[in-house]
Amino acid sequence: AWEDVFECFGAQVEDVEMMRELQIHIRNAVSGEEVKRVWLRPSDTVARLCEATLCEAGQVLAESHRFIFQCQELQHHVTLRHAGLCHGDTVDLIRVPLEWQCVTASHDGTARIWHLESEQQRSPAERVKSSASGECTGLDLKSHGVLRHAVFSPCKTRLLTMSTGQGGVGQLWCANSFEHLCSLQGGALSATFSSNGDSLVGLDADGNARTWSAETGRTLHKMSSGIEDAEMHFAQFSHCGRLVVVGEDCCVQLWDSSTGELLNTLHGHEDVVKTAAVSSDGELLLTASADGTARLWSCKTGECLQVLEGHAKPLALCSFSPGRLQAVTASQDGLVKMWQLTEKKSVRSNTLGADYRVTAECMFTLKADGGVVNSACFSPDGACLLVSDASETVKLFGAKLGELQLTFGGTHEDWVRSASFSDDGRLVATASYDGTAAVWDAATGQCVHALKGHDEAVVSADVISS
């Protein structure tokens, strides 16, 4: 009983501390001059610190703003408390000029690199135009069939393209010269980069999970359970790159990415597992299945922590927020559900310490236009959810309450196939079945570039700052 009292008292003290505001001093990292003093709560994120710092001067797309504390760059999704900031601390602000690039992939068999200018870099005459196009360089991949995907590596030095020819082809290109570097050994039905960009993981042309070197395209590990007639549906890295998560029929496998050793097989779903996501800290796994449920697992123990129910049809996607506090699921029933993750602590009676268990509760449900969810992703700071559906528009919702914040529209004339944020969250890239892509200001919803030049549907668009 006393343990419960102490736990309750400790939680109340912690809540009070989180409500107390901190004064943070913002200093120009170059001149050493104080830029501003801001008051924020320990629970506020670094993204909120950026917003509070720049609200008076005006944040421009031509600059990137980075915050340095104790020689470390602060990540935007981290809270001030977890960053170690206390009342009266000083944070250095670095302003970096930006150039933007967008890569688009189309069913016409081409990937195109677009060099974009910000609104601030255009002449007054150019600003009158509602949607100026960027300078474009095309990569002709028609010999390899329909292009399905194109994306920059995290280090922004390479470009990956995926096409349907020869059973599935993955190719790596130099992002600066557009020189062809290599193809992924064994072909590729799917592939994604690791978080550091050194390797890739996906399914080869035969449907087996593989990891590849991003330098040479050669196979690092080939993963097979050895079960006859078993079919793999996806393979992806955990955020840290230590694990490879593979969906094989109704189960999920966890593999060691460095050795190719099978660590655990998770059973419980009653139909094919369509996709999965690993939390940013590598502790939790979320799986989405054709059985209409998602499941929350412990990566360490393989225990199923909770079955997430409420969808009426097979699930299509799932993901964690950057800070692991929330998760999203979307289904063929046309619904997007936001789940709040809670870590409940129970104090053990022995000396082993505290035991934690994570549970999920559905906070709100969004209904997609036309009953189709094409994509749904969190903003880099985890504050918003970007959804594309069976319409010509994309919608931005608040991640806490589900309120509609912005609608990106007026440019596309057919369904938006996909929508995603730039790496810093300041731009949104959309790809449409009308054969165009567009780049938008994430803060205002204004279209800053309409990208026209493809002959068929654009299936992916990825925008980065370079």
Number of strands: 37
Structural Rg? 23 Å
Described by strand count, sense and barrel closure, the largest sheet is:
5 strands, mixed
Q: How many helices?
A: 3
Q: Taking strands numbered 1, 2, ... along the chain, how are they ordered across the largest sheet?
A: 2-1-5-3-4
- Look at the structure and give the mean pLDDT: 87
Provide a concise account of the structure shown:
The chain is 7% helix and 49% strand. By secondary structure, it is mainly beta. 41% of the residues are buried.
Characterise the protein shown here.
It is a single chain. With 466 residues, the chain is mainly beta. The chain contains three helices and 37 strands. The strands form nine sheets. The protein has a five-stranded mixed sheet, with helices on one face. The radius of gyration is 23 Å and the shape is globular.
Keywords:
mainly beta, 3 helices, four-stranded antiparallel sheet, five-stranded mixed sheet, globular, 49% strand
SSE order and pairing:
Blueprint: H1 2-19, E1 22-28, E2 34-40, H2 46-54, E3 63-69, E4 72-73, E5 90-97, E6 100-106, E7 110-116, H3 124-127, E8 135-140, E9 147-152, E10 158-163, E11 169-174, E12 180-183, E13 190-193, E14 199-203, E15 209-213, E16 219-223, E17 232-237, E18 243-248, E19 251-256, E20 262-266, E21 273-278, E22 284-289, E23 294-298, E24 304-308, E25 315-320, E26 326-331, E27 335-347, E28 354-367, E29 373-378, E30 384-389, E31 394-398, E32 404-408, E33 416-421, E34 427-432, E35 436-441, E36 447-452, E37 458-465
Parallel strand pairs: 1-5
Antiparallel strand pairs: 1-2, 3-4, 3-5, 6-7, 6-37, 7-8, 9-10, 10-11, 11-12, 13-14, 14-15, 15-16, 17-18, 18-19, 19-20, 21-22, 22-23, 23-24, 25-26, 26-27, 27-28, 29-30, 30-31, 31-32, 33-34, 34-35, 35-36
